[in-house]
Amino acid sequence: MIFTATSHNTVYAFDADANPCVTYWSKNLVPAGETWPNSVDMGGVDIQPDMGVIGTPVIDPTTKHSVCRHENQDDWD
Predict the structure, then answer these.
(1) Assuming Cys at both sites, which of 5, 8, 30, 35 could form a disulfide with 57, CB separation 3.0 to 4.6 Å?
(2) What per-residue string of b and e applies to 37-70 under the rule 16 or more CB within 10 Å gives b?
(3) DSSP labels, 11-42
(4) What is the Cα–Cα distance from 5 to 68, expressed in whole angstroms?
(5) Can you give the pTM of this predicted structure?
(6) What is residue 29's three-state secondary structure?
(7) Which residues partner with 10 through β-bridges?
(8) 16 near 59, Cβ under 8 Å?
(9) Cα separation of 38 and 52, whole Å?
(10) Are 4 and 12 in contact (CB under 8 A)?
């Protein structure tokens, strides 16, 4: 199994041994009514335009939790 994530905060689990590759599941980590941050919000120019999960996704095997950054109209979470 391989996990991957996107700059729009969606995490995917794939069976990388299957041919063709099989998607086990996907989950968008952004709560309803919020969105992923963008480069303007984050004050950076190195990664554009969106800055959701931009590193290697890490999933805690005990709790099955992952962390991402998202925003609403008023503040950052």
Answers:
(1) 5
(2) bbeeebeeeeeeebbbbbeebeeeeeeeebebbb
(3) EEEEETTSSS-EEEEEEE-SPTT-B--BHHHH
(4) 10
(5) 0.65
(6) coil
(7) 28
(8) no
(9) 8
(10) yes
CA 67 to CA 69: how far, in whole Å? 7
Locate all alpha helices (DSSP H) within 1-77, ordered by sequence.
39-42
In this prediction, residue 24 carries a pLDDT of 92
Q: Which two structure tokens, joined as six digits, stand for 12?
A: 């995917």
Classify 33 as helix, strand or coil: coil
The confidence band for 76, taking pLDDT boundaries of 50, 70 and 90, is: very low
Kindly report the number of other CB atoms within 10 A of residue 23's CB atom: 10
